[in-house]
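Researcher: Let's do a round of design. I'm pasting the structure tokens now; please hold your answer until I've finished.
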């Protein structure tokens, strides 16, 4: 039985199988990996993210850790809030879901940021968070590994190199998945990937790399 609030319309259920996960189920499932949801830099991908029910809860958990550890220093808070947001990825086939998911994630971040630092909040940092969400929450099909425009799905990896310096590298989603396939042989990836012992997966070569920049410069990466 589908509860109220889990569907938008019968036609969307019939055409896209769209049924949203309830908050109780979201929390029960995330509690199974509780330590990872509270690790600021742990990465999560929701391949059918809808409006972001899972991603919102993960972000809330991460931001609680950031708040507890770094609330007394704005630059530290911004650094680790950036890491928390940049670790979340989502794909959805419906554009309105993608737009709402991005908006909800930004609103959750900005509510905490504004409450903590008020008039000292940096608009350039807010712009950087908006840009992260634009790159990390994508409209496409996780089964075909294509965007709705028919292009390969590409995700950005964001690495903090120093207190405010960011390094961005882009990776093709299909190659990331291939690198984690247990059947993939070293010969297949020898020329374009390296084996990472920690993750026990082949890490593909990036399709694009960008120069170091500070938070404000992230939005100029296009």
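Researcher: That's everything. Go ahead.
Model: Designed sequence:
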């Amino acid at each position: 039985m589908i509860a109220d609030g889990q569907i938008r319309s019968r036609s969307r259920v019939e055409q896209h199988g769209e049924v949203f996960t309830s908050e109780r189920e979201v929390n029960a499932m995330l509690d199974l990996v509780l330590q990872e949801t509270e690790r600021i830099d742990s990465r999560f991908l929701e391949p059918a993210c809808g409006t972001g029910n899972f991603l919102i809860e993960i972000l809330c958990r991460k931001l609680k850790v950031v708040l507890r550890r770094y609330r007394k220093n704005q630059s530290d808070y911004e650094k680790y809030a950036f890491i928390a947001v940049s670790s979340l990825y989502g794909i959805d086939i419906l554009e309105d879901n993608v737009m709402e998911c991005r908006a909800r994630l930004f609103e959750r971040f900005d509510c905490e940021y504004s409450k903590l630092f008020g008039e000292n909040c940096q608009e350039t940092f807010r712009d950087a968070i908006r840009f992260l969400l634009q790159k990390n929450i994508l409209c496409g099909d996780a089964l075909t590994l294509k965007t709705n425009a028919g292009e390969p799905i590409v995700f950005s990896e964001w690495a903090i190199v120093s207190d405010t310096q960011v390094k961005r590298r882009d990776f093709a989603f299909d190659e990331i998945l291939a690198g984690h396939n247990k059947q993939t042989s070293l010969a297949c990836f020898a020329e374009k990937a390296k084996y990472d012992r920690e993750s026990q997966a082949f890490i593909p070569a990036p399709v694009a790399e960008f120069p170091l920049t500070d938070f404000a410069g992230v939005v100029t990466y296009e």
